Amino acid sequence: MHQIRAMVIVGAGHAGGRAGQALRELGWKGPIVMIGAETHLPYERPPLSKGLLTGAQDAVSCALRPAADHDRDLITHCVAWVDRIDTRRREVVLDGGRRIAYEALLLATGGHLRRLSVPGAGGAGLLGLRTLDDAASLQPRLTPGARLVIVGGGFIGLEVAASARQRGCEVTLIEGAASLLGRAVPPAIGARVLALHRAHGVDVRLQASPTAFGTDGQGHQTVQLADGSVLTADTVVVGVGIVPATELAEAAGLAVARGIRVDAGLRTSDAHVFAAGDVAEFPSPLSGEPIRQETWHNAETQARVAAANMLGGHETCSQLPWFWSDQYDHQLQVSGEPALGVRRVSRLLGDEAQIDFHLDGDGRLVGASGFGPTTVVARELKLARLLVERRRQPAAEALADPGVKLKSLA
């Protein structure tokens, strides 16, 4: 008897949800099965550290799209764990033994919260922020006067700090490096971010690493630092990044490095298996070198490429990296790949804002990073991104001069 094969998506997050939607829009009439461990339908993650924590948004508003649209597309949402992938038979095997045959398979498994290797790091009292349920656990704790310690000075840690201060919490943020966002933005922009948080009352401690977590016997959390000092808090949030969820791919014999290795069309080393989103390591459109992106934009754009190619298409990932972070009334954006630049040109937009342009050896723009009050930088950052996407080679003097309109350089 002929077995009906489905388009199977493992991972019911942003990339998985958009891929299911795209499969229908691109004409697939057969079954679509989306498998995920969460009971929630696909949702967007940016609000988790912002609107959900401040109370400006609720869980329903985070949904990738209305449940009715999901139902209309006849996408089967299977809440389960995948035990393994049988690439020979083209089946996924669920933890209960059920097998689902696939025409093509998309791995959109995202990542797991990174854990610290220090005593007490696995304690139930420490919170992370990756899911709607994580946000639901943290939000009620952010009350006026509550003491919050945040471990990690990356985007999640800083956004949680901003949200907690807006809720009236006392916030201490510790970061092991000598600057904030050191791997993501130039030092000058990191310094502006640091100044903003300190101006809003966050006690930011750089070059400070936790050596142990515990409790003080009175229901309070404790964080011991390498310098011997001890912080006491009502809540401790650890935000030190994620580890890509490559376990299924590795067990199936697929090529894995810093993520699941894919080509420009998001095909893995198995012709019937694709990967997209946080877990995929793909060729950079700028350098051709393998990169991995943990961003809203990456999930949004790769999902449709993967869906098209699952149906036999020949799409490629040509969109350049781009992400943003909202903190208080400021916004930070990075477009392209600033690390590829050999020269940096700064455009100062008043005392509180700047955009750094990153150029390669030929003077071509390969990245832009900027930070400042949203009302000041939003339009300029949009134009900066456009310049990078169009691979412009503007004169450095024009980029540095705020009197020269960026629109004229596009």
Automatic annotation (TrEMBL):
Q: Which residues form the FAD/NAD(P)-binding domain?
A: 7-303
Q: Which UniProt keywords apply?
A: Dioxygenase, FAD, Flavoprotein, Oxidoreductase
Domain of life, source organism: Bacteria
Coiled-coil region(s) at which residues?
Answer: none
Entry cofactors: FAD
What Pfam families does this protein's entry cite? Answer: Pyr_redox_2, Reductase_C
Cross-referenced InterPro entries: FAD-oxidoreductase/Apoptosis, FAD/NAD-bd_sf, FAD/NAD-binding_dom, FAD/NAD-linked_Rdtase_dimer_sf, Reductase_C
Domain spans labelled Reductase C-terminal: 322-410
Output the PANTHER family linked to this UniProt entry: APOPTOSIS-INDUCING FACTOR 1 (PTHR43557), RIESKE DOMAIN-CONTAINING PROTEIN-RELATED (PTHR43557:SF2)
This one is known as 3-phenylpropionate/trans-cinnamate dioxygenase ferredoxin reductase subunit
| Species, as recorded | Sphaerotilus hippei
